[in-house]
Amino acid sequence: MTFSNNRTFAAFGILLLVMITLFSGCSALQDLANSVQKPRLSVTDMRVSGFNFNEIELTYDITIENPNALSLQLDSYNYDFKLNDRTFIQGQQQENSTIEASGKSTLKVPVTLNFQELYQGIQTLAGADQADYEFLSDLTFDLPVLGLTKIPVSRKGSIPMLNSPSISVNSLKVQNLSLSRADLLLNMEFNNPNAFGIVINGFDYGLDINGDRWAEGESLANTSIGSKESRQLSIPISLNITEIGISAYRLLTGTGELNYSLDGNFNLGTTHPLLDQTNLKVDRSGSLPLTGN
């Protein structure tokens, strides 16, 4: 009987020891969980990291502050990009990066908008000069004890709506003509449909007339086009008749239209604070009226 009581007492002691150990472990885990702070998030910058008149890339800088004395793991993120309160683009990305203890890190989230798709999807924006956006993102961290934890961050603002300028070639005007030389003006029209000004930094071009290269070079530097403005542009061209051939002289003294091909590249700046520089390619061909001869 005494032996049985001793065994019961020993078993009870072991159980009590296990319970104390488990309780101590749970208490320690709870203390650790309580001590782990969630990272602090903020969208510290939004910028246009690239654009042409068909697409624009926005980059959002999300600053992550880790207030803990141990490093944290960023597992993934997602985002929802809205324009005028309508979702246009959603995305998600695995990240698997480490945020150092008591450190800061910047997550760069690129968002690319195609304007043709945008205007088809949200037709009310087709004639708009700008749109209000809302950038919503959830960052998922693998936190000690807490496991996978989502933390939201957001930013609101506005961005310009872009439309491609139109370029038309109107005429070739003869200013001076001799058997050795011809001074011409290639007259064009540049139509800017956007709500911001455009600055032509330069236009690299090549002009063929009736299949022969008549001119190439750079022109129109520092030419400004106002918002929603259509402006006449003239490119001065000097021809050496002796180099091109007497056939050019006959064409310039004739009365018919010329077959032309113009290819080139505009380097453009803008007056919008978010938009820097971009290129606009030109490839035009057809019949060209000859004036002034």
TrEMBL record:
Pfam families: LEA_2. It comes from the Bacteria. GO terms for biological process: response to desiccation. SMART domains: WHy. Gene3D superfamilies: 2.60.40.1820. Residues 41-158, 167-287 form the Water stress and hypersensitive response domain. Belongs to the LEA type 2 family. This is LEA type 2 family protein. It comes from Halalkalibaculum roseum. The lineage of its organism: Bacteria, Pseudomonadati, Balneolota, Balneolia, Balneolales.
